[in-house]
Amino acid sequence: MVETRLPRNPQPKEWLAKDHSLQYIADYKPFNFVDGEGVRCSLYVSGCLFNCPGCYNKAAQNFHYGQPYTQELEDQIIADLSQSYVQGLTLLGGEPFLNTQVCLKLVKRVRKEFGHEKDIWSWSGYTWEELMKESDDKLELLHYLDILVDGRFLLAKKDLTLQFRGSSNQRIIDVPKSLQQGKVVIWDKLVH
Ligand code: SF4
């Protein structure tokens, strides 16, 4: 059967981390090469409400999937990031912006320990334009990022050849430049 359903479209501030997040972690993958530029440590948070058909990580749509986030895991992530060959941290899910309690705690620690020596990437089902109208916690998290890969996964726009993205509507956004210029600025190392 052909899938005709589309991802869900929330109103601004309709979905809030405080109402949904259980602060669970679906997975943690240190030292990988696929979740952004360079060698990365990736945290997969649990819970997402977008319900995109064809979601790459359907199990992690459940806010109760996996394990609770712990101080021990955070300390391990910081120890792994301290390796000189690791470029940075990646947040994925699930939906990082519906798990801001966990993600904000971690990104603040990363900036405290490493400043901007390590970069921070995040994926989100929210688009940049949607995040601009979102709750304070989501905007705060955005301000800690270097790169945002934005937007739902759309089966109709699926393209497996794209760099770091599953569908062609998604963008790799340079967050500091976009905030500074008040408009989306695409990552200048984008290949395709
Ligand atoms: S936004 Fe990402 S994690 Fe959420 S349902 Fe869509 S593809 Fe899955």
TrEMBL record:
Keyword 4Fe-4S set for record: yes
Reported cofactor(s): [4Fe-4S] cluster
Keywords, in A-Z order: 4Fe-4S, Iron, Iron-sulfur, Metal-binding, Oxidoreductase, S-adenosyl-L-methionine
EC number: 1.97.1.-
Top-level lineage group: Bacteria
Enzyme class: oxidoreductase
Function of the protein: Activation of anaerobic ribonucleoside-triphosphate reductase under anaerobic conditions by generation of an organic free radical, using S-adenosylmethionine and reduced flavodoxin as cosubstrates to produce 5'-deoxy-adenosine.
PANTHER family: ANAEROBIC RIBONUCLEOSIDE-TRIPHOSPHATE REDUCTASE-ACTIVATING PROTEIN, PYRUVATE FORMATE-LYASE-ACTIVATING ENZYME
Name this polypeptide is given: Anaerobic ribonucleoside-triphosphate reductase-activating protein
Organism lineage string: Bacteria, Bacillati, Bacillota, Bacilli, Lactobacillales
